[in-house]
Design brief:
mainly beta, seven-stranded mixed beta sheet, 0% helix, globular
Length: 115
């Protein structure tokens, strides 16, 4: 089982980034996928998730209307489109796959929002 997050980088406030979570070793459509983030000195927090099957999405209040999660089953990849980025979005972003007792984490990708 692997989850490979990518797409982070340095962006100015108001800019956009798209994170990707490439998965392998499990059937993506049967798992809920979540994006989490951890800022320096803070605890990891949920950002967004997309359900197995019908792909129902949820967002933290802090990113609602700015971030969008989606999945491409054929590519076994989940995306997080981040628009209108703010300095407080600076964090290491992680993707997570969960189904029942199975809970998998990928390595993080760093997003830095700064002018």
């Amino acid at each position: 089982v692997q989850l490979q997050a990518s797409g982070g980088g340095l962006v100015q406030p108001g800019g956009s980034l798209r994170l990707s979570c490439a998965t392998s070793g499990f059937p993506l459509d049967y798992y809920a996928i979540g994006w989490f983030r951890q800022a320096p000195g803070k605890e990891r927090e949920p950002v967004s998730c997309i359900s197995a099957g019908d792909g129902t999405t949820n967002y933290a209040d802090s990113v609602k209307d700015r971030f969008s999660i989606s999945k491409d089953i054929a590519k076994s990849t989940v995306y997080l489109q981040m628009d209108n980025l703010k300095p407080e979005d600076t964090a290491v972003y992680y993707c997570n796959a969960q189904r029942g007792f199975n809970n998998y984490w990928g390595q993080g990708t760093l997003v830095t929002v700064s002018s």
